[in-house]
Records
---
Amino acid sequence: VQLVQSGDELRTPGASVKISCKASGYTFSDYYIEWVRQAPGQGLEWMGRIDPEDGATNYAQKFQARVTVTADTFTSTAYVDLISLRPEDTAVYYCAVGGLVNWGKGTLVTVSS
């Protein structure tokens, strides 16, 4: 299993960011893809997940209004879209599959004016 994430991003407050996670080495529709973030000096924070088979999503309540998780079965790529960014959204964002067994390397999103 390999999860390749898009590169680091720098955004200003109020902007949005979309991070990709391209999966390979397994059948894309077999596992949920989950998104987790870790802010500097903080623990892991689960954001949401998608079932690529039918597009069903679940979100942590904290992120429901600002996060959208999508999946493209043709390219085996999942995305997380975060809007209305705030400085406290500065974190490393990870995708993971297989019940959080396999992880991408992470994408650093920095929100700063």
---
Amino acid sequence: EVQLVESGGGMVQPGGSLRLSCVASGFPFNMYLMTWVRQVPGKGPEWVSRINANGGTTWYADSVKGRFTISRDNVKNAVYLQMNSLKPEDTALYYCATGINVGRVGPGTQVTVST
């Protein structure tokens, strides 16, 4: 059974930083591309960033390019999202997903950017 557990969210002021983590189990993590997704109530999920299986290739949505950095540790079965220069429009529930899926498996972690 695929399990994904996200953590690291919180409330920060605009311009602040957060580092999200996602720990995976139940599948061969080191063989899967991983995606960070965010969702705001009432809107569809938006993919934020992706990283290939060995971590050598990354992709970013235009809205976060230059501010967010995705990485992974295949020993720890974890994928991370370093978020800098946060903006109020980054406020959302963030979660990780396997492959190019955008469906949520784990609880997600809430990020709120507000004064």
---
Amino acid sequence: QVQLVESGGGSVQAGGSLRLSCAASGFTFSSYCMGWFRQTPGKERERVATINRDGTTSYADSVKGRFTISQDNTRGNLALQMDSLATEDTAVYYCSACGKVWGQGTQVSVSS
């Protein structure tokens, strides 16, 4: 069964850090582009960061220099290190494999 399960969300004050993890199972993790997306109520889901099969990364302008995406192919795990969090980063964060498989999401709440 193809599955992505996120963890690591929570509540933090502005300026703080969180690390999200995504555990993949049921498919060859290293064969897919992987990414983190986020969504707030009433808004469309937006791309946060992606990592291609060759390891190249891409970030939304709003998170550049603050967030870092990484993956461990041997363990089938995707991570998102989020530093210098701002209230605007509050959202449900989703892990995805090429936009075809999605996790259930994890809530990140940043307070001022």
